[in-house]
Design brief:
There is one protein chain. About 35% of the residues lie in helices and about 0% in strands. The chain has three domains: about 25-130, no CATH class; about 135-275, Cytochrome Bc1 Complex, Chain D, domain 2 (Orthogonal Bundle); about 290-400, Cytochrome c-like domain (Cytochrome Bc1 Complex, Chain D, domain 2). It is elongated, with a radius of gyration of 28 Å. It contains 18 helices and four strands. Bound molecules: heme C (5 copies).
Length: about 400
Protein backbone atom coordinates (compact mmCIF):
# COMPACT_ATOMS: atom_id res chain seq x y z
CA UNK A 1 0.00 0.00 0.00
CA UNK A 2 2.77 2.41 1.02
CA UNK A 3 4.61 1.52 -2.16
CA UNK A 4 1.66 2.35 -4.37
CA UNK A 5 1.24 5.69 -2.65
CA UNK A 6 4.93 6.39 -3.18
CA UNK A 7 4.73 5.65 -6.90
CA UNK A 8 1.65 7.81 -7.31
CA UNK A 9 3.26 10.68 -5.44
CA UNK A 10 6.47 10.47 -7.46
CA UNK A 11 4.50 10.49 -10.69
CA UNK A 12 2.56 13.52 -9.50
CA UNK A 13 5.72 15.37 -8.54
CA UNK A 14 7.33 14.65 -11.89
CA UNK A 15 4.23 15.87 -13.68
CA UNK A 16 4.22 19.06 -11.59
CA UNK A 17 7.89 19.61 -12.36
CA UNK A 18 7.34 19.49 -16.12
CA UNK A 19 4.24 21.62 -15.83
CA UNK A 20 6.21 24.27 -13.96
CA UNK A 21 9.04 24.09 -16.48
CA UNK A 22 6.59 24.48 -19.34
CA UNK A 23 4.96 27.49 -17.71
CA UNK A 24 8.33 29.08 -17.14
CA UNK A 25 9.22 28.73 -20.81
CA UNK A 26 6.06 30.48 -21.86
CA UNK A 27 6.28 33.33 -19.36
CA UNK A 28 6.15 36.70 -21.04
CA UNK A 29 9.64 37.74 -20.05
CA UNK A 30 11.32 34.62 -21.39
CA UNK A 31 9.70 35.40 -24.73
CA UNK A 32 11.17 38.91 -24.69
CA UNK A 33 14.56 37.60 -23.69
CA UNK A 34 14.71 34.99 -26.49
CA UNK A 35 13.61 37.63 -28.96
CA UNK A 36 16.32 39.95 -27.68
CA UNK A 37 19.06 37.30 -27.87
CA UNK A 38 18.07 36.44 -31.43
CA UNK A 39 18.78 40.04 -32.46
CA UNK A 40 22.36 39.78 -31.16
CA UNK A 41 25.35 38.27 -32.94
CA UNK A 42 27.32 35.44 -31.31
CA UNK A 43 30.01 37.93 -30.26
CA UNK A 44 27.48 40.38 -28.76
CA UNK A 45 25.91 37.60 -26.69
CA UNK A 46 29.18 37.01 -24.86
CA UNK A 47 28.85 37.85 -21.22
CA UNK A 48 25.10 38.57 -21.36
CA UNK A 49 23.13 36.11 -19.28
CA UNK A 50 19.41 35.45 -19.27
CA UNK A 51 17.07 35.04 -16.31
CA UNK A 52 15.27 37.49 -14.07
CA UNK A 53 17.24 40.72 -13.58
CA UNK A 54 16.78 42.51 -10.35
CA UNK A 55 17.98 45.88 -9.08
CA UNK A 56 17.89 46.13 -5.31
CA UNK A 57 18.00 49.67 -3.94
CA UNK A 58 17.60 49.33 -0.21
CA UNK A 59 17.98 53.10 0.43
CA UNK A 60 14.80 53.68 -1.57
CA UNK A 61 13.10 50.49 -0.47
CA UNK A 62 12.80 49.14 -3.99
CA UNK A 63 13.36 45.92 -5.93
CA UNK A 64 12.99 46.56 -9.65
CA UNK A 65 12.89 43.80 -12.27
CA UNK A 66 12.14 46.12 -15.20
CA UNK A 67 15.47 45.30 -16.88
CA UNK A 68 14.35 41.68 -17.24
CA UNK A 69 12.57 42.90 -20.38
CA UNK A 70 14.15 46.33 -20.85
CA UNK A 71 17.43 44.57 -21.56
CA UNK A 72 19.18 47.29 -23.53
CA UNK A 73 18.21 50.24 -21.37
CA UNK A 74 21.89 51.08 -20.74
CA UNK A 75 23.12 50.38 -24.29
CA UNK A 76 23.19 53.63 -26.30
CA UNK A 77 23.79 51.69 -29.55
CA UNK A 78 20.22 50.36 -29.17
CA UNK A 79 18.66 53.83 -29.27
CA UNK A 80 16.57 52.99 -32.34
CA UNK A 81 15.42 49.51 -31.36
CA UNK A 82 11.76 48.79 -30.60
CA UNK A 83 10.35 48.69 -27.05
CA UNK A 84 11.19 47.04 -24.77
CA UNK A 85 14.70 46.92 -26.24
CA UNK A 86 15.47 50.62 -26.67
CA UNK A 87 18.24 52.40 -24.84
CA UNK A 88 17.13 55.00 -22.31
CA UNK A 89 16.74 58.47 -23.85
CA UNK A 90 18.98 61.31 -22.64
CA UNK A 91 21.60 61.14 -19.91
CA UNK A 92 19.17 60.26 -17.13
CA UNK A 93 20.83 56.96 -16.27
CA UNK A 94 24.26 58.61 -16.17
CA UNK A 95 22.96 61.20 -13.70
CA UNK A 96 21.01 58.59 -11.76
CA UNK A 97 23.02 55.32 -11.90
CA UNK A 98 20.74 52.32 -12.25
CA UNK A 99 22.15 50.46 -9.23
CA UNK A 100 21.51 53.52 -7.01
CA UNK A 101 18.08 54.52 -8.36
CA UNK A 102 16.42 51.62 -10.17
CA UNK A 103 13.48 52.53 -12.42
CA UNK A 104 10.26 52.79 -10.42
CA UNK A 105 11.41 55.76 -8.33
CA UNK A 106 10.94 57.83 -11.50
CA UNK A 107 8.50 55.77 -13.59
CA UNK A 108 6.17 54.20 -11.05
CA UNK A 109 4.85 50.77 -12.03
CA UNK A 110 5.34 47.58 -10.05
CA UNK A 111 9.01 46.74 -9.60
CA UNK A 112 8.70 43.07 -8.69
CA UNK A 113 6.32 42.09 -11.48
CA UNK A 114 7.58 40.26 -14.56
CA UNK A 115 4.51 40.56 -16.79
CA UNK A 116 3.99 43.64 -18.91
CA UNK A 117 0.59 44.67 -17.59
CA UNK A 118 1.44 44.09 -13.95
CA UNK A 119 4.91 45.69 -14.26
CA UNK A 120 3.37 48.76 -15.84
CA UNK A 121 0.92 48.97 -12.97
CA UNK A 122 -1.98 48.37 -15.32
CA UNK A 123 -3.87 46.04 -12.96
CA UNK A 124 -6.62 46.62 -10.39
CA UNK A 125 -5.53 47.65 -6.90
CA UNK A 126 -2.03 48.73 -7.92
CA UNK A 127 -1.69 52.36 -6.90
CA UNK A 128 1.23 53.42 -9.14
CA UNK A 129 0.38 53.42 -12.83
CA UNK A 130 3.38 53.78 -15.14
CA UNK A 131 4.30 57.42 -15.72
CA UNK A 132 4.57 57.38 -19.49
CA UNK A 133 6.13 60.05 -21.70
CA UNK A 134 6.20 63.54 -20.17
CA UNK A 135 4.22 62.46 -17.08
CA UNK A 136 7.48 61.03 -15.70
CA UNK A 137 8.38 64.64 -14.81
CA UNK A 138 6.04 64.26 -11.83
CA UNK A 139 8.69 62.17 -10.07
CA UNK A 140 11.55 64.66 -10.07
CA UNK A 141 10.25 66.90 -7.27
CA UNK A 142 10.52 64.22 -4.58
CA UNK A 143 14.31 64.69 -4.69
CA UNK A 144 14.89 67.92 -6.62
CA UNK A 145 13.76 70.72 -4.34
CA UNK A 146 15.22 73.24 -6.75
CA UNK A 147 12.85 73.12 -9.72
CA UNK A 148 14.43 76.14 -11.41
CA UNK A 149 17.47 73.97 -12.15
CA UNK A 150 15.19 71.47 -13.91
CA UNK A 151 13.43 73.88 -16.27
CA UNK A 152 15.25 72.30 -19.25
CA UNK A 153 14.42 68.73 -18.19
CA UNK A 154 11.04 68.91 -16.51
CA UNK A 155 9.36 71.89 -18.22
CA UNK A 156 5.80 70.69 -17.49
CA UNK A 157 6.52 70.36 -13.79
CA UNK A 158 7.89 73.90 -13.65
CA UNK A 159 4.99 75.25 -15.68
CA UNK A 160 2.48 73.39 -13.52
CA UNK A 161 3.86 74.93 -10.36
CA UNK A 162 3.65 78.39 -11.90
CA UNK A 163 0.04 77.78 -13.07
CA UNK A 164 -1.03 76.58 -9.63
CA UNK A 165 -0.14 80.02 -8.27
CA UNK A 166 -1.31 82.02 -11.29
CA UNK A 167 -4.78 80.42 -11.42
CA UNK A 168 -5.36 81.15 -7.75
CA UNK A 169 -5.50 77.55 -6.55
CA UNK A 170 -3.89 78.77 -3.30
CA UNK A 171 -7.03 80.81 -2.59
CA UNK A 172 -8.85 77.61 -1.58
CA UNK A 173 -6.16 74.95 -1.24
CA UNK A 174 -3.07 74.76 0.91
CA UNK A 175 0.03 72.76 0.08
CA UNK A 176 1.40 72.19 3.56
CA UNK A 177 1.76 75.59 5.21
CA UNK A 178 1.16 77.77 2.14
CA UNK A 179 -2.37 78.60 0.99
CA UNK A 180 -5.95 78.80 2.34
CA UNK A 181 -7.95 76.08 4.02
CA UNK A 182 -11.32 76.64 2.29
CA UNK A 183 -10.91 73.20 0.73
CA UNK A 184 -8.64 70.15 1.11
CA UNK A 185 -4.88 70.36 1.54
CA UNK A 186 -3.26 69.06 -1.64
CA UNK A 187 0.17 68.26 -0.16
CA UNK A 188 -0.24 64.53 -0.87
CA UNK A 189 -2.86 64.45 -3.59
CA UNK A 190 -0.37 62.72 -5.95
CA UNK A 191 -0.37 59.64 -3.73
CA UNK A 192 -4.00 59.78 -2.60
CA UNK A 193 -5.25 56.20 -2.32
CA UNK A 194 -7.56 54.93 -5.04
CA UNK A 195 -9.91 53.76 -2.31
CA UNK A 196 -10.55 57.35 -1.32
CA UNK A 197 -11.43 58.44 -4.84
CA UNK A 198 -13.47 55.40 -5.84
CA UNK A 199 -16.71 57.33 -5.46
CA UNK A 200 -15.52 59.79 -8.10
CA UNK A 201 -14.62 56.94 -10.48
CA UNK A 202 -18.34 56.22 -10.83
CA UNK A 203 -18.80 59.58 -12.54
CA UNK A 204 -15.98 59.21 -15.05
CA UNK A 205 -15.12 56.84 -17.91
CA UNK A 206 -12.11 54.49 -17.44
CA UNK A 207 -9.19 54.27 -16.96
CA UNK A 208 -9.88 54.42 -13.25
CA UNK A 209 -6.65 55.63 -11.77
CA UNK A 210 -5.34 58.78 -10.13
CA UNK A 211 -3.78 60.32 -13.26
CA UNK A 212 -7.02 60.23 -15.21
CA UNK A 213 -8.98 61.37 -12.14
CA UNK A 214 -6.88 64.55 -11.85
CA UNK A 215 -7.14 65.26 -15.58
CA UNK A 216 -10.93 64.86 -15.38
CA UNK A 217 -11.22 67.09 -12.34
CA UNK A 218 -9.19 69.85 -13.98
CA UNK A 219 -11.19 69.60 -17.20
CA UNK A 220 -14.42 70.24 -15.32
CA UNK A 221 -14.72 69.56 -11.60
CA UNK A 222 -18.51 69.41 -11.84
CA UNK A 223 -18.32 66.17 -13.84
CA UNK A 224 -17.14 64.43 -10.68
CA UNK A 225 -19.28 66.41 -8.23
CA UNK A 226 -22.42 67.38 -10.13
CA UNK A 227 -24.60 67.82 -7.03
CA UNK A 228 -28.17 66.60 -6.61
CA UNK A 229 -31.07 68.95 -7.37
CA UNK A 230 -33.93 69.11 -4.89
CA UNK A 231 -36.49 67.51 -7.23
CA UNK A 232 -34.39 64.33 -7.37
CA UNK A 233 -34.31 63.92 -3.61
CA UNK A 234 -36.89 62.55 -1.18
CA UNK A 235 -38.95 65.37 0.36
CA UNK A 236 -37.27 67.05 3.31
CA UNK A 237 -33.70 66.30 2.26
CA UNK A 238 -31.43 69.22 1.52
CA UNK A 239 -30.34 69.78 -2.05
CA UNK A 240 -26.65 69.13 -2.79
CA UNK A 241 -24.85 71.84 -4.74
CA UNK A 242 -22.29 71.00 -7.41
CA UNK A 243 -18.68 71.35 -6.22
CA UNK A 244 -17.54 74.82 -5.19
CA UNK A 245 -14.37 74.29 -7.21
CA UNK A 246 -14.51 76.62 -10.21
CA UNK A 247 -14.46 75.51 -13.81
CA UNK A 248 -11.26 77.22 -14.95
CA UNK A 249 -11.54 76.56 -18.69
CA UNK A 250 -7.92 75.32 -18.79
CA UNK A 251 -6.31 74.51 -22.16
CA UNK A 252 -5.15 70.88 -22.68
CA UNK A 253 -1.52 72.01 -22.20
CA UNK A 254 -2.34 73.78 -18.95
CA UNK A 255 -4.22 70.73 -17.72
CA UNK A 256 -1.30 68.42 -18.50
CA UNK A 257 1.19 70.71 -16.73
CA UNK A 258 -1.05 71.07 -13.67
CA UNK A 259 -1.57 67.29 -13.61
CA UNK A 260 2.19 66.70 -13.60
CA UNK A 261 2.53 69.19 -10.75
CA UNK A 262 -0.33 67.67 -8.71
CA UNK A 263 1.07 64.15 -9.27
CA UNK A 264 4.39 65.41 -7.92
CA UNK A 265 2.76 66.25 -4.58
CA UNK A 266 3.23 62.93 -2.77
CA UNK A 267 4.14 61.43 0.57
CA UNK A 268 7.48 60.19 -0.87
CA UNK A 269 10.29 60.85 1.54
CA UNK A 270 13.64 59.78 0.06
CA UNK A 271 16.76 59.82 2.28
CA UNK A 272 18.55 63.18 2.49
CA UNK A 273 21.51 61.83 0.51
CA UNK A 274 19.18 61.65 -2.52
CA UNK A 275 17.80 65.15 -2.21
CA UNK A 276 18.74 68.54 -3.61
CA UNK A 277 17.68 71.54 -1.50
CA UNK A 278 15.12 74.09 -2.76
CA UNK A 279 16.15 77.27 -4.55
CA UNK A 280 16.80 80.25 -2.30
CA UNK A 281 13.76 82.54 -1.92
CA UNK A 282 13.97 85.53 -4.21
CA UNK A 283 12.98 88.82 -2.62
CA UNK A 284 11.36 90.95 -5.29
CA UNK A 285 11.20 94.70 -4.85
CA UNK A 286 8.47 96.82 -6.38
CA UNK A 287 8.51 100.42 -7.60
CA UNK A 288 5.09 101.22 -6.22
CA UNK A 289 2.28 99.95 -4.02
CA UNK A 290 0.00 98.97 -6.91
CA UNK A 291 2.52 96.52 -8.38
CA UNK A 292 3.31 95.19 -4.95
CA UNK A 293 -0.40 94.80 -4.18
CA UNK A 294 -0.96 92.95 -7.44
CA UNK A 295 1.78 90.50 -6.44
CA UNK A 296 0.12 89.96 -3.03
CA UNK A 297 -3.27 89.41 -4.75
CA UNK A 298 -1.73 86.78 -7.05
CA UNK A 299 0.44 85.10 -4.42
CA UNK A 300 -2.44 84.58 -1.99
CA UNK A 301 -4.80 83.25 -4.66
CA UNK A 302 -7.52 85.94 -4.49
CA UNK A 303 -7.85 85.18 -8.24
CA UNK A 304 -9.18 81.70 -7.42
CA UNK A 305 -12.47 83.19 -6.17
CA UNK A 306 -12.56 86.77 -7.47
CA UNK A 307 -11.19 86.01 -10.94
CA UNK A 308 -8.15 87.51 -12.69
CA UNK A 309 -7.89 91.22 -11.80
CA UNK A 310 -10.82 90.74 -9.47
CA UNK A 311 -13.41 90.90 -12.25
CA UNK A 312 -15.55 88.28 -10.47
CA UNK A 313 -17.68 85.67 -12.13
CA UNK A 314 -16.87 82.53 -10.15
CA UNK A 315 -20.00 80.57 -9.29
CA UNK A 316 -21.10 80.51 -5.66
CA UNK A 317 -24.32 78.50 -5.49
CA UNK A 318 -26.97 80.32 -3.45
CA UNK A 319 -24.41 83.02 -2.57
CA UNK A 320 -26.42 86.04 -3.66
CA UNK A 321 -25.30 88.65 -6.20
CA UNK A 322 -26.35 86.40 -9.07
CA UNK A 323 -24.86 83.43 -7.18
CA UNK A 324 -21.36 84.68 -7.81
CA UNK A 325 -18.35 85.74 -5.81
CA UNK A 326 -18.46 89.54 -6.04
CA UNK A 327 -16.31 91.50 -8.45
CA UNK A 328 -13.73 93.73 -6.78
CA UNK A 329 -13.58 96.44 -9.40
CA UNK A 330 -16.35 98.26 -7.50
CA UNK A 331 -14.46 98.30 -4.23
CA UNK A 332 -13.19 101.88 -4.56
CA UNK A 333 -16.62 103.19 -5.48
CA UNK A 334 -18.12 101.39 -2.49
CA UNK A 335 -15.57 101.97 0.27
CA UNK A 336 -14.12 105.31 -0.92
CA UNK A 337 -12.50 107.12 2.01
CA UNK A 338 -13.37 104.28 4.37
CA UNK A 339 -10.16 102.34 3.77
CA UNK A 340 -10.18 100.99 7.32
CA UNK A 341 -13.51 99.19 6.77
CA UNK A 342 -12.12 97.56 3.63
CA UNK A 343 -8.98 96.49 5.46
CA UNK A 344 -11.15 94.97 8.17
CA UNK A 345 -13.09 92.88 5.63
CA UNK A 346 -9.83 91.52 4.26
CA UNK A 347 -8.34 90.90 7.71
CA UNK A 348 -11.30 89.02 9.15
CA UNK A 349 -13.18 87.82 6.08
CA UNK A 350 -16.95 87.20 6.12
CA UNK A 351 -18.12 83.83 7.30
CA UNK A 352 -20.60 82.57 6.56
CA UNK A 353 -21.82 84.25 3.40
CA UNK A 354 -25.50 85.24 3.66
CA UNK A 355 -27.83 82.91 1.73
CA UNK A 356 -29.72 84.27 -1.23
CA UNK A 357 -32.57 81.89 -0.43
CA UNK A 358 -33.02 80.90 3.19
CA UNK A 359 -34.74 77.66 2.18
CA UNK A 360 -31.66 76.41 0.33
CA UNK A 361 -28.32 75.20 1.74
CA UNK A 362 -25.35 77.35 2.72
CA UNK A 363 -23.23 78.58 -0.23
CA UNK A 364 -19.92 76.78 -0.76
CA UNK A 365 -17.60 79.78 -0.74
CA UNK A 366 -17.01 82.43 1.85
CA UNK A 367 -14.49 85.23 2.20
CA UNK A 368 -11.64 83.77 4.32
CA UNK A 369 -9.70 85.77 6.93
CA UNK A 370 -6.27 86.87 5.79
CA UNK A 371 -4.81 88.63 8.82
CA UNK A 372 -2.31 85.85 9.58
CA UNK A 373 -1.14 85.68 6.01
CA UNK A 374 -0.04 89.23 5.26
CA UNK A 375 1.83 92.09 6.87
CA UNK A 376 0.28 95.52 7.40
CA UNK A 377 2.28 96.94 4.55
CA UNK A 378 1.12 94.07 2.28
CA UNK A 379 -2.44 95.03 3.17
CA UNK A 380 -1.88 98.71 2.39
CA UNK A 381 -0.38 97.73 -0.97
CA UNK A 382 -3.29 95.37 -1.64
CA UNK A 383 -5.79 98.18 -1.04
CA UNK A 384 -3.88 100.41 -3.46
CA UNK A 385 -4.11 97.64 -6.04
CA UNK A 386 -7.83 97.04 -5.45
CA UNK A 387 -8.51 100.78 -5.80
CA UNK A 388 -6.56 100.82 -9.06
CA UNK A 389 -9.00 98.24 -10.43
CA UNK A 390 -11.72 100.87 -10.61
CA UNK A 391 -9.99 102.01 -13.80
CA UNK A 392 -11.36 98.83 -15.36
CA UNK A 393 -14.89 99.94 -14.57
CA UNK A 394 -16.19 101.61 -17.74
CA UNK A 395 -14.86 99.12 -20.32
CA UNK A 396 -14.70 95.91 -18.34
CA UNK A 397 -17.97 96.26 -16.49
CA UNK A 398 -19.84 95.69 -19.73
CA UNK A 399 -17.59 93.08 -21.37
CA UNK A 400 -16.12 91.07 -18.51
CA UNK A 401 -19.28 90.91 -16.47
CA UNK A 402 -19.80 87.25 -15.79
CA UNK A 403 -22.01 85.19 -18.05
CA UNK A 404 -21.89 81.92 -16.19
CA UNK A 405 -20.31 78.98 -17.97
CA UNK A 406 -20.25 80.82 -21.27
CA UNK A 407 -17.97 83.63 -20.13
CA UNK A 408 -14.68 83.68 -21.99
CA UNK A 409 -12.54 85.81 -19.69
CA UNK A 410 -13.50 83.92 -16.57
CA UNK A 411 -15.07 80.53 -17.10
CA UNK A 412 -16.17 80.67 -13.44
C1 LIG B 1 7.52 41.50 -19.18
C2 LIG B 1 8.32 42.52 -19.85
C3 LIG B 1 8.36 43.91 -19.28
C4 LIG B 1 8.65 44.29 -18.00
C5 LIG B 1 8.94 43.40 -16.79
C6 LIG B 1 8.61 45.76 -17.98
N1 LIG B 1 8.33 46.23 -19.22
FE1 LIG B 1 8.19 48.17 -19.77
N2 LIG B 1 7.69 47.66 -21.67
C7 LIG B 1 7.55 46.35 -22.10
C8 LIG B 1 7.03 46.38 -23.46
C9 LIG B 1 6.71 45.15 -24.31
C10 LIG B 1 6.85 47.75 -23.81
C11 LIG B 1 6.30 48.32 -25.12
C12 LIG B 1 4.77 48.20 -25.15
C13 LIG B 1 4.07 49.00 -24.09
O1 LIG B 1 4.25 50.22 -24.04
O2 LIG B 1 3.33 48.41 -23.28
C14 LIG B 1 7.30 48.51 -22.66
C15 LIG B 1 7.28 49.88 -22.60
C16 LIG B 1 7.70 50.64 -21.51
C17 LIG B 1 7.76 52.10 -21.46
C18 LIG B 1 7.39 53.02 -22.58
C19 LIG B 1 5.90 53.27 -22.52
C20 LIG B 1 5.38 54.20 -23.58
O3 LIG B 1 4.18 54.12 -23.79
O4 LIG B 1 6.13 54.99 -24.15
C21 LIG B 1 8.21 52.44 -20.22
C22 LIG B 1 8.42 53.85 -19.71
C23 LIG B 1 8.42 51.21 -19.49
N3 LIG B 1 8.09 50.14 -20.29
C24 LIG B 1 8.87 51.17 -18.19
C25 LIG B 1 8.95 49.99 -17.45
C26 LIG B 1 9.25 49.97 -16.03
C27 LIG B 1 9.53 51.18 -15.17
C28 LIG B 1 9.24 48.65 -15.67
C29 LIG B 1 9.46 48.08 -14.28
C30 LIG B 1 8.52 48.49 -13.26
C31 LIG B 1 8.92 47.88 -16.84
N4 LIG B 1 8.73 48.72 -17.89
C32 LIG B 1 8.86 46.49 -16.86
C33 LIG B 1 7.86 45.20 -21.40
C34 LIG B 1 8.17 45.14 -20.06
C1 LIG C 1 15.83 59.89 -12.85
C2 LIG C 1 14.61 59.39 -13.34
C3 LIG C 1 14.59 58.18 -14.24
C4 LIG C 1 15.03 56.91 -13.95
C5 LIG C 1 15.74 56.44 -12.69
C6 LIG C 1 14.69 56.09 -15.07
N1 LIG C 1 14.07 56.85 -16.04
FE1 LIG C 1 13.28 56.18 -17.77
N2 LIG C 1 12.83 58.09 -18.33
C7 LIG C 1 13.03 59.21 -17.54
C8 LIG C 1 12.69 60.38 -18.31
C9 LIG C 1 12.75 61.82 -17.82
C10 LIG C 1 12.28 59.93 -19.59
C11 LIG C 1 11.78 60.77 -20.76
C12 LIG C 1 12.99 61.32 -21.47
C13 LIG C 1 12.65 62.08 -22.72
O1 LIG C 1 11.50 62.06 -23.16
O2 LIG C 1 13.58 62.70 -23.23
C14 LIG C 1 12.39 58.49 -19.56
C15 LIG C 1 12.08 57.65 -20.63
C16 LIG C 1 12.06 56.27 -20.58
C17 LIG C 1 11.61 55.39 -21.64
C18 LIG C 1 11.16 55.82 -23.02
C19 LIG C 1 9.65 55.85 -23.12
C20 LIG C 1 9.01 57.01 -22.43
O3 LIG C 1 8.03 56.79 -21.69
O4 LIG C 1 9.45 58.16 -22.61
C21 LIG C 1 11.73 54.10 -21.17
C22 LIG C 1 11.35 52.81 -21.91
C23 LIG C 1 12.28 54.17 -19.84
N3 LIG C 1 12.46 55.51 -19.51
C24 LIG C 1 12.54 53.07 -19.04
C25 LIG C 1 13.29 53.13 -17.88
C26 LIG C 1 13.79 51.95 -17.18
C27 LIG C 1 13.54 50.51 -17.59
C28 LIG C 1 14.50 52.41 -16.13
C29 LIG C 1 15.30 51.62 -15.11
C30 LIG C 1 16.44 50.93 -15.64
C31 LIG C 1 14.41 53.88 -16.13
N4 LIG C 1 13.69 54.25 -17.22
C32 LIG C 1 14.94 54.73 -15.17
C33 LIG C 1 13.46 59.23 -16.22
C34 LIG C 1 14.01 58.14 -15.56
C1 LIG D 1 15.38 59.58 -5.97
C2 LIG D 1 15.87 60.95 -6.15
C3 LIG D 1 15.86 61.57 -7.53
C4 LIG D 1 14.86 61.56 -8.47
C5 LIG D 1 13.48 60.90 -8.37
C6 LIG D 1 15.32 62.35 -9.58
N1 LIG D 1 16.59 62.81 -9.34
FE1 LIG D 1 17.75 63.89 -10.61
N2 LIG D 1 19.31 63.73 -9.35
C7 LIG D 1 19.24 63.20 -8.07
C8 LIG D 1 20.56 63.30 -7.46
C9 LIG D 1 20.92 62.86 -6.05
C10 LIG D 1 21.40 63.90 -8.44
C11 LIG D 1 22.88 64.23 -8.29
C12 LIG D 1 23.01 65.65 -7.83
C13 LIG D 1 24.43 66.09 -7.71
O1 LIG D 1 25.32 65.35 -8.14
O2 LIG D 1 24.61 67.18 -7.20
C14 LIG D 1 20.58 64.15 -9.60
C15 LIG D 1 21.04 64.76 -10.77
C16 LIG D 1 20.24 65.19 -11.80
C17 LIG D 1 20.66 65.98 -12.93
C18 LIG D 1 22.07 66.42 -13.22
C19 LIG D 1 22.31 67.71 -12.52
C20 LIG D 1 23.69 68.19 -12.74
O3 LIG D 1 23.82 69.41 -12.77
O4 LIG D 1 24.61 67.39 -12.83
C21 LIG D 1 19.56 66.23 -13.70
C22 LIG D 1 19.49 67.07 -14.96
C23 LIG D 1 18.44 65.59 -13.06
N3 LIG D 1 18.90 64.97 -11.92
C24 LIG D 1 17.15 65.60 -13.54
C25 LIG D 1 16.13 64.84 -13.01
C26 LIG D 1 14.81 64.74 -13.60
C27 LIG D 1 14.37 65.45 -14.87
C28 LIG D 1 14.10 63.90 -12.81
C29 LIG D 1 12.66 63.45 -12.99
C30 LIG D 1 12.36 62.80 -14.25
C31 LIG D 1 14.95 63.47 -11.73
N4 LIG D 1 16.16 64.08 -11.88
C32 LIG D 1 14.57 62.61 -10.70
C33 LIG D 1 18.17 62.65 -7.47
C34 LIG D 1 16.95 62.37 -8.09
C1 LIG E 1 -12.95 78.50 -5.06
C2 LIG E 1 -12.27 77.47 -4.37
C3 LIG E 1 -11.36 76.54 -5.17
C4 LIG E 1 -10.34 76.91 -6.00
C5 LIG E 1 -9.89 78.31 -6.39
C6 LIG E 1 -9.74 75.68 -6.45
N1 LIG E 1 -10.38 74.60 -5.91
FE1 LIG E 1 -9.83 72.65 -6.06
N2 LIG E 1 -11.36 72.12 -4.84
C7 LIG E 1 -12.26 72.99 -4.26
C8 LIG E 1 -13.22 72.23 -3.48
C9 LIG E 1 -14.39 72.81 -2.68
C10 LIG E 1 -12.85 70.87 -3.59
C11 LIG E 1 -13.51 69.66 -2.90
C12 LIG E 1 -14.73 69.22 -3.63
C13 LIG E 1 -14.37 68.55 -4.91
O1 LIG E 1 -13.58 67.58 -4.88
O2 LIG E 1 -14.85 69.00 -5.95
C14 LIG E 1 -11.67 70.84 -4.46
C15 LIG E 1 -11.00 69.68 -4.80
C16 LIG E 1 -9.82 69.64 -5.55
C17 LIG E 1 -9.08 68.45 -5.84
C18 LIG E 1 -9.39 67.06 -5.33
C19 LIG E 1 -8.70 66.89 -4.02
C20 LIG E 1 -9.07 65.64 -3.28
O3 LIG E 1 -8.22 65.19 -2.49
O4 LIG E 1 -10.17 65.13 -3.46
C21 LIG E 1 -8.02 68.82 -6.63
C22 LIG E 1 -6.95 67.90 -7.19
C23 LIG E 1 -8.11 70.24 -6.83
N3 LIG E 1 -9.21 70.72 -6.15
C24 LIG E 1 -7.22 70.97 -7.59
C25 LIG E 1 -7.32 72.35 -7.78
C26 LIG E 1 -6.43 73.13 -8.63
C27 LIG E 1 -5.27 72.56 -9.42
C28 LIG E 1 -6.85 74.43 -8.57
C29 LIG E 1 -6.34 75.61 -9.35
C30 LIG E 1 -6.37 75.48 -10.81
C31 LIG E 1 -8.00 74.47 -7.68
N4 LIG E 1 -8.25 73.20 -7.23
C32 LIG E 1 -8.67 75.62 -7.33
C33 LIG E 1 -12.27 74.34 -4.36
C34 LIG E 1 -11.38 75.10 -5.11
C1 LIG F 1 -12.55 81.12 -1.11
C2 LIG F 1 -13.02 82.21 -1.93
C3 LIG F 1 -12.44 83.59 -1.70
C4 LIG F 1 -11.11 83.94 -1.71
C5 LIG F 1 -9.88 83.05 -1.92
C6 LIG F 1 -11.08 85.38 -1.53
N1 LIG F 1 -12.35 85.85 -1.40
FE1 LIG F 1 -12.88 87.79 -1.10
N2 LIG F 1 -14.84 87.27 -1.01
C7 LIG F 1 -15.33 85.99 -1.19
C8 LIG F 1 -16.78 86.01 -1.05
C9 LIG F 1 -17.71 84.83 -1.18
C10 LIG F 1 -17.13 87.36 -0.77
C11 LIG F 1 -18.53 87.89 -0.50
C12 LIG F 1 -18.74 87.87 0.97
C13 LIG F 1 -20.02 88.52 1.40
O1 LIG F 1 -20.36 89.54 0.81
O2 LIG F 1 -20.61 88.03 2.35
C14 LIG F 1 -15.87 88.10 -0.75
C15 LIG F 1 -15.78 89.45 -0.49
C16 LIG F 1 -14.63 90.19 -0.58
C17 LIG F 1 -14.55 91.62 -0.38
C18 LIG F 1 -15.72 92.51 -0.04
C19 LIG F 1 -16.36 92.98 -1.29
C20 LIG F 1 -17.52 93.91 -1.01
O3 LIG F 1 -18.20 94.19 -1.99
O4 LIG F 1 -17.72 94.31 0.13
C21 LIG F 1 -13.25 92.00 -0.59
C22 LIG F 1 -12.67 93.41 -0.53
C23 LIG F 1 -12.51 90.79 -0.89
N3 LIG F 1 -13.37 89.73 -0.87
C24 LIG F 1 -11.16 90.79 -1.14
C25 LIG F 1 -10.42 89.60 -1.26
C26 LIG F 1 -8.98 89.57 -1.31
C27 LIG F 1 -8.06 90.79 -1.32
C28 LIG F 1 -8.62 88.27 -1.40
C29 LIG F 1 -7.21 87.67 -1.40
C30 LIG F 1 -6.38 88.05 -0.29
C31 LIG F 1 -9.86 87.49 -1.39
N4 LIG F 1 -10.92 88.34 -1.30
C32 LIG F 1 -9.91 86.12 -1.49
C33 LIG F 1 -14.60 84.86 -1.46
C34 LIG F 1 -13.21 84.80 -1.51
Amino acid sequence: MKRVLFVILSALLTALFFLALGQDMTREWTGYQSKFFRTLSQAERQGISGGIKQIIVSDLNRIDRCTTCHLAIDKPQMALAEEPFTAHPGKYLAWHPVEQFGCTVCHGGQGLATEVKAAHGDVPHWEQPLLRGPLVQASCRQCHGNLNELSGYAPLLVKGRQLFAAKGCYGCHAIKDVGQSVSVDLAEVGSKSHQLIEADFENMPPPHHRIHWILTKLDNPRVLNPGVPQDQLPPGEEEVFPTAMPHFGLTPDERQALTVYLLSLTDANPPVSYTIPPEPQVVTTYDNDIDRGRAVFERLGCTGCHGPQGVGGRRNWNGGLGEEVPSLIYVKAYYGENVEALKEVIRTGRQPVPRADAARPQPGLYMPAWKDRMTDSDLTALVAYLYSLSELLPAEASTAAPAGDQATTVTN
